Amino acid sequence: MEGSMSLNARKELLVCIRQQYQKASWKEKRKILDGFIAATGYKRKYAIALINQPENKEVRPNKRVKPIIYNDAVRQSLLTVWYAANQICSKRLVPFIPELVHKLEFLGHLSLPSQTKELLLQMSVSTVDRLLKGERLKAHKGIITTRPGNLLKKQIQVKTFAEWNEVVPGFLEVDLVAHCGGSAEGSFLNTLVLTDIASTWTECLPLLRKGKADVIFALQVVQSLLPFPLLGIDSDNGSEFINYELLHFCESKQITFTRSRAYRKNDQAHVEEKNGSIVRKIIGYDRYEGTEAWQALGELYAVLRLYINFFQPSMKLISKHREGAKIRKKYDQAQTPYQRLLISSHIQQGIQEKIRKQYEELDPIK
User: How far apart are CA 124 and CA 149, in angstroms?
Assistant: First the structure.
């Protein structure tokens, strides 16, 4: 059997019988082959292939050894860029790498040899995924604190995800994120998140209480922060949004007010994505209470809004269609909200110049 003969002994036997086998008749070949199989334990077809193989044929290894292109220096530079971009997914990161590398080099945070820089800029999405595989963080989940508001539903128009066709910046989806930890009992802070549909510009504001007055005050603050007029808001069916006070506020400011369908989170897919990628990723799931935490959260969001809108690229869904059981989705190239506003024909040139100067003064690492 194979186990009773060493590898070297099998090789020596093969050399001895190979010439004899080639010169033998068909009947003699059968006897030689049977004896070789009995001695080595090889399968018949494998034994025939070995005997017929030329003596000087080079044996190739089973696995092809690929040369290492992306060495540790390239991987470390990728990690620097990835962490500067808040560990975003590869599809959002890759189109933004040239711009971010240029910014980091200009500010002195990154100094790359020409070969390393060239390799970094030519990386594909799959390569970035492979190199970052060990650095990915696991996602966490929280609890739901939304309470339905039954008033005024008939007076506030329903708007679904599929109906968002506004190309003018100023129409925002709004939602609340609770900082309640593991319990929804008692008083805790909330974050009001607003995302513009056209540009993905996002604002986050902390609320000391989950009430209609706090929401209205936050919207007034948002109006002063946005680089474009607030034209419309789309909320879920929580009582902090579906109330007379907010409806009257929107009517007085000529702000279009719509709502999503109950229990249909995909109707607010734009802002729901920001809840996870911004608030949950940066702030987390801990419980926060009181004015001191509220002030600290406000100071953090004042800085974070610049980082998000100037250095966090995102992709927008262009189209989707069904092919049998599969849904094919097509996205545009990842861009930051700042980049989208610069190419928008609906933003005045003065505002574009203002945010361009603001971008030049910002440091993503700081």
Answer: 47
244/126 Cα distance (integer angstroms):
50
Using CA atoms, how far apart are residues 74 and 116, in angstroms rounded to an integer?
A: 6
Cα–Cα distance for residue pair 335/316, rounded to 1 Å: 9
For residue range 297-343, what is the model confidence (pLDDT) as tens digits? 999 999 999 999 999 998 888 888 888 888 888 888 999 999 999 99
Residue pair 159/271 in contact (Cβ under 8 Å)? The answer is no
190-196, strands of its sheet edge to edge:
157-158, 256-259, 232-235, 171-178, 190-196, 202-207
**3-state SS, one letter per residue, for 167-205:** CCCCEEEEEEEECECCCCCCCCCEEEEEEECCCCCEEEE
Q: Is the pLDDT of residue 144 over 60?
A: no
Residues 194, 195, 201, 205, Cα dihedral to 10°:
20
| pLDDT band with cut points at 50, 70 and 90 for residue 33 | confident
Global pTM value: 0.70
